Each structure stands twice: as C-alpha cells, then as structure tokens.
UniProtKB/TrEMBL annotation:
All copies of domain NB-ARC, residue ranges: 41-158
Record protein name field: NB-ARC domain-containing protein
UniProt xrefs under Pfam families: NB-ARC
UniProt xrefs under Gene3D superfamilies: P-loop containing nucleotide triphosphate hydrolases, Tetratricopeptide repeat domain
Organism, scientific name: Conoideocrella luteorostrata
GO molecular function terms noted in the UniProt entry: ADP binding
PANTHER family: NB-ARC AND TPR DOMAIN PROTEIN, ZU5 DOMAIN-CONTAINING PROTEIN
Length: 729
C-alpha cells in the first residue's frame, strides 16, 4: 500500500467509536466486507432518530480505512438534493479532479462518477441521513464495484431495492447503564452506582441521546445518579418524552443568557455546517441585537465555553468549532416554548437574509452571486424543514417576512442553476409560509414571485401547459396592481407595475412556444411589446423593449415559419444589444438565430451561430453541464450530420450525451434525442459498429418508454424536439 494515494472524508466530529455496537459491526463485515461471506455491495442502517446510525457508519468506515480495507472512503450528506450535490462537489475537490468547479455541481458529479469507473482501488461510499432511495438514485455509483452504506430513520420499505438492511436499536438496560457509568467517569466525584444507572437506563428506554444528556447534567451539576433520580422536575414524570425534555431543560438552564441565545439560534441552522461566518461576518444592517456578542471576541468565546465543554458544540470538518450535534439540536427544540422557537427561527431567517443578495437583484439574474448563494443554501433548506416541523406542532407559529424573502431568492438561485425539483419544493414551502405571514403589503408580490418560479420549473421539466396556467395567474396579479395605480401615485410605481406586466406577458409567450402553441405565443409577445411601447409613449420609460424579449419574439416567428427580413433583423438587433449584458441572454439569442438558419436549411451558417452560442455560454463558470450546453453540442452535431461531417457530428453528439446523461432522470427526452442522433451519426460513419449503434438506440427507446412516449412512432426525433424547452430546442 506504500505510496498509493488514499483519502477518507468521514467527518471528524462523527469519528467516535460506536459504543457497544460490535454486533452491528460484525454484521456489516459479514455483508459488505470484500472478504465477507456475502460480498454484497450495499446495506441500509435504519432506526429511530438520534439512535447512533451515523456514529456506527463513521466508526466502521474509519476502522476499515485504517486497516487498509478501503483506500477511499467518501461521505455524502444525504438530507436533500442540495446537500448531496454539494457533497459530490467537495469530493471532486478533495480528489483533486481536473476540471472540478465549485459552481457546477452537475459537472463535479460527472467527474466523480468518471473517476469511480476508472478506479481499481476499493472504495466505500456512505450516504448519511437519507430520506428516500429516489433522492440518491441519480448519484448511485455507476461502476457497481463500490461498497455503499446508507443511514436513514425512514422505513426499511423505502429502501426495498437495497440488498441488505440492519436495524440499529436502542440499548438494553444493562448496556445503557454501562454506557451511562462510562460517561460519568469524567466526574471527579464519580461513584459506580450500578442500581441507579440500571434504573435510569430502563426509564429512559435505552436511548443514547437521552442517556448522554443525563450524564452531561450529572457531571456538570456535580451530583450523584441517586440525587439526579430524586430531582423533583424529573422524578414525577411518567413518559420518556417528558423525562427527555426535562433532562435537556435542566442542562439548558445552566447556560448563560448569551449561550442560550447562541444555542437557540444554532438549532435552526444546518447542524453539519460551521456557521461562524454567518454569525461573525454578517454585513446585515439589521443584525439581531441579542446576538451582538458574536461581534466581540471575548464575549463570543465566553458564550461558547459551556456548550463546548458539555460536547453540545464540536469540531467541524474544516477545523471550526461551531458544529452542533444533530441530536442536541433536535432535543433542544423540543424544550423551547413557542415564543423562544419563534424568536430563534426569526433570528436565523434574519441572519441568512443578511448574507444573501438583495431581493431586487433576484428579480433579474444572480449569476455573479452564485457562490454566496451556494455557501448558505443548505442553511436555507434546513430552515425550510424546520418551518414545516413547526407548522405541524403549532398553528400559532408564524412565518416572518424575512423567511419568505429568503425562500424567494433561493428559488431564483435554484432555477438559474437548473435544480428545478428543489426549486419546486421551495416554492411549495413559500406558499405554505404565506399562509402564516399575516397581513403584509407585499403579499401579492410574494405570491407572484412564487408562481413565476413554479412556472419556470414546470416549463423546464416538461409541463409547459401547467406553466402557462401559472404565468397567467401571475399576469392577473400584475394586471390588478397596474389597474389600481392612481393619479397621485409616483411615476416609479406605475413604471414598476407596467414593467412587471410586460415581463409576465413575455413569460407566457415563451411557455406557449414550449407547448407548441406558437400562434398563441405570438399574441402574448405582441401584448408585451404593446405594454412596453405604451410606457415609452407615456414617458415612463426611455429604454427600448428588452433585447431578450425581442429575441423571444423572433424565435416565436421562426417556429411559425416566418423567415422574412424582419425576423432576421430582430435577432441581429437583440444579439448586438445583449453583448453588453451577461452572456446568458446573448447565448440564448444566438441559439435562436441559429434555429432560424437551420430551419431554412442553412446548416453551415447555423453551425457558426451554435458555436457562437456555446462560446458565449462558456464564458460563465459552472454552466458547462447545464441543459443549454448539451443542447449546443446536440445542434452542432445535427448540423454537422446534415453537412456530412460525420466524425465531427459524432464528436459533438458524444459530448452532448455525456452531459445530458447526468440529468437524464429529470430530462429523459433530451438525453434520448441525443442518443438517437448519435446512433444515426454512427450509422452514417463507416468506421462504427452495429453494436454501438444498437446500444445507443436501445437506451434511447428505454428512456422514452419510461417517459410514456412511443419510440416507434414516425419522426421520433422531431417528436422529442417538440418536448424540449424552447430556449434550447
């Protein structure tokens, strides 16, 4: 093994030796060890929350790495698609893979999968705290050689396709008492009161988190187990839940006021991410006053002292000190009264709004702010999950407007980075939050933004008809806002109302184009143009119609087979205007003009425009595996095929398929059309084999059948094209 590169990514704060779980470690060896009796490749560790599944997985992985059984141990935070994607980005960087890009999770996922397929060394992958098999399916190692451990508190039935499962259960009374006594050895006045330890283990149901909390309090209060049993707040409680809450309340009451504020806030942030920057480098003008001590080194250190001493806060992977134990976070929230939970939730939302881009910026494009959004996104996702839990607990729990703003900005970011499913999830959460917002003057604006992001996601994921409905709802909201403008209102307010109306009309238009209702799309583009023209005539606006709207209108006319000089002129004007804006809209306009040329069978000229579109798109870091990038390769391939440049066609189509393969689960039609055209290009090239052609065609047909599309219909490639979003069709 000397000289062989090795790497473990097991979180340091999880590398605790699992206490008395030897039976589980033996089972794991029997099931998944390369030298085990069964040699299975996957196993699920499941059980109730906070029972120690992560500790078992971390302990097993660490031990096997140290013994040289695995050369690579990769750790994936499996809570949601965001944490999973970010984990693969971290893996790509830690493996030092060429081309790894912090902004491009899809690309990093591709690089890691490619690396796994090339590996001969043994690899163990842990997917920790997974909620469903569906969430990790796109990330499942493709080579089939890796060993996989999944931890979850979900039902075993959710993971029925995994080869084996192991239940991680509570301890029996004897084991629980032994664990409790071991923890108490930290107490200088330690007495081995076995009888009290057994009694406490029995009444606490052998739950590790509760036994740990009990030991923590006994050590801190410097009392005996017998004295703890006789504490009035605890002794008379009959249920395990009540005893657990009382134990944690006893500990929390030991903290200073600053420590309590800090711990309460941390309970609503992602427990696996060090929030130091959020607390100490937050430039918000509205930084919560009760956390002002975070800005003073000595006061901050004092607030951390007791939580760290009690093990509530531990070292993070990057050497920080503000990683709160998940079990601590969960249990503390249970003891907080509604007022405290509401205040702590509001504080977390205020902190995050303070570091995210301004809401006004989120109405346009966030590309230059992707890095900051990506840094804090997991905190947003965690806060969203906390909100759903709070809603289930209390009808009185409110959604602060900062939370709604935060979700709105995060929705925009997820839409721009092509995480449409998670964008939809946040939209649904924000609609739920609006019901708990109360009276707010911007209620309609919040609703319009949510519906607009929902429309973007549904159009992109293949349901343009639903997107049209959603955008029409937005249009009606904006129309009412425009109609209620009074003569006394400011010019700026009227301009804002009309500008938003014109933008929504444009959005309805492009969704109609994706739905292949091009005549209807034309009506909406004309409506958008008329609104903008009226603003100019009324001296509300000096600037001409936005160039991206002009390009969208021209593309609509192209699909109506209007190839006259006016359409060409619209594209040229838009492309020139967009040179001074970000490259995204310029790339889309170039792609639209290429479509115009292609539909006139001017394949050479179209190819040049597709090259231009790809070149503009590639100016953006982190977008190489966006569907638009794959579509550029696809269209370059189809143009080369028509020009009988077969080797070039194959090269472009292979590259396109490599990209579209990453998100084929969400966009099967886009990947299928690439495979079909690649099969056609290979057939035209005399050096290819029948087996290669058939394999691509077979894969495409399987994808289409799963998408309920008949692959045997005439002109199947055209049928696929008609289902692709209009921006990269």
């Amino acid at each position: 093994m000397s000289g062989t590169p090795r790497l473990t990514l097991v979180p340091r704060f999880s590398q605790n030796t699992p206490y008395d779980r030897e039976d589980i470690l033996v089972k794991l060896d029997q099931l998944i060890s390369p030298k085990g009796a069964h040699s299975a490749r996957s196993v699920v560790l499941h059980g109730i929350p906070e029972i120690g599944k992560t500790t078992v997985a971390a302990g097993y992985a660490t031990k096997k790495f140290e013994y040289g059984i695995y050369d690579f141990v990769l750790w994936v935070q499996g809570q949601n698609s965001v944490s999973i994607a970010q984990s693969f980005t971290k893996i790509a960087h830690r493996l030092d893979l060429n081309g790894a890009d912090a902004k491009s999770h899809d690309h990093n996922h591709y690089l890691v999968q490619k690396w796994l397929q090339s590996q001969g060394a043994p690899v163990l992958i842990v997917f920790d705290q997974v909620k469903s098999l569906e969430s990790i399916e796109p990330y499942w190692p493709a080579s089939g050689r890796e060993t996989v451990i999944i931890t979850t508190h979900e039902s075993r039935l959710a993971f029925k396709d995994i080869e084996h499962d192991i239940l991680v259960n509570r301890w029996d009374n004897e084991t629980g008492s032994e664990f409790l006594l071991k923890q108490l050895q930290k107490n200088e006045h330690f007495e081995a009161d076995t009888a009290s330890a057994v009694a406490l283990s029995e009444t606490m149901g052998g739950h590790p988190a509760l036994l740990t909390a009990c030991a923590t309090y006994v050590v801190e209060a410097k009392i005996s187990l017998a004295e703890y049993r006789n504490l009035k707040p605890w002794n008379n409680l009959k249920t395990e839940a009540a005893r657990e809450s009382s134990t944690w309340a006893l500990i929390f009451d030991q903290f200073s006021e600053d420590s309590q504020h800090l711990m309460a806030t941390l309970c609503y942030l992602d427990p696996r991410i060090d929030p130091s920057k959020l607390l100490r480098e937050n430039g918000s003008k509205n930084f919560p006053y009760h956390l002002d001590f975070c800005n003073h080194e000595s006061e901050f250190s004092d607030a951390l002292h007791k939580p760290k001493a009690l093990g509530f806060i531990k070292a993070s992977q990057d050497g920080g000190t503000l990683v709160i134990e998940t079990s601590v976070q969960t249990c503390l929230r249970k003891i907080f009264p509604l007022e405290c939970r509401q205040k702590s939730f509001n504080t977390a939302a205020e902190l995050l709004v303070g570091v995210f881009p301004d809401r006004e910026l989120a109405e346009s494009q966030l590309y230059n702010k992707w890095e900051i959004c990506n840094t804090y996104l997991r905190h947003v996702m965690h806060l969203k999950e906390c909100f759903d839990k709070e809603m289930a607990i209390s009808k009185e729990f409110k959604a602060p407007r900062e939370f709604c703003i935060l979700l709105e900005i995060a929705q925009r970011f997820l839409s721009e980075t092509n995480n449409m499913k998670e964008c939809m999830n946040l939209c649904q959460a924000n609609l739920r939050a609006l019901k708990r917002l109360g009276q707010d003057p911007e209620q309609a604006d919040f609703e319009a933004a949510i519906l607009s992001h929902q429309a973007q996601a549904t159009e992109s994921l293949g349901d343009p008809e639903k997107a049209i409905e959603l955008n029409k709802e937005v249009y009606n909201i904006r129309l009412k806002q425009e109609q209620v403008q009074k003569p006394g209102n400011s010019t700026a307010e009227l301009k804002t109302a009309k500008t938003r109306l014109a933008k929504v009309a444009n959005n309805v238009g492009y969704c109609c184009d994706t739905a292949n209702i091009h005549e209807e799309a034309k009506k909406w583009f004309i409506k958008s143009e008329e609104i903008w023209t009226s603003m100019i005539n009324d001296k509300l606006e000096e600037q001409p119609r936005p160039a991206r709207h002009v390009a969208n209108h021209a593309r609509c006319l192209t699909y109506l087979r209007n190839f006259d000089e006016e359409v060409e002129s619209k594209f040229k004007m838009a492309i020139i205007e967009l040179q001074n804006e970000d490259p995204i809209n310029q790339a889309i306009a170039l792609f639209g003009r290429a479509t115009l040329l292609r539909k006139q069978s001017k394949f050479k000229e179209a190819k040049e425009q597709y090259f231009g579109a790809r070149s503009a798109w590639q100016k953006l870091d982190g977008t190489g595996f966006h569907p638009f990038s794959a579509a550029c390769g696809y269209r370059l391939g189809t143009c080369c095929l028509r020009l009988e440049e077969f080797r070039a066609a194959i090269s472009h189509l292979e590259e396109s398929c490599e990209q579209s393969k990453v998100w084929k689960a969400d966009r099967p039609v886009e990947h299928a059309r690439g495979l079909l055209m690649l099969s056609e290009a290979l057939e035209a090239d005399s050096t290819s084999t029948q087996a290669d052609r058939d394999a691509h065609k077979r894969d495409a047909e399987a994808l289409l059948r799963n998408a309920h599309i008949d692959p045997m219909q005439d002109n199947i490639v055209d049928a696929c094209d008609d289902r692709v979003p209009i921006f990269w069709r």
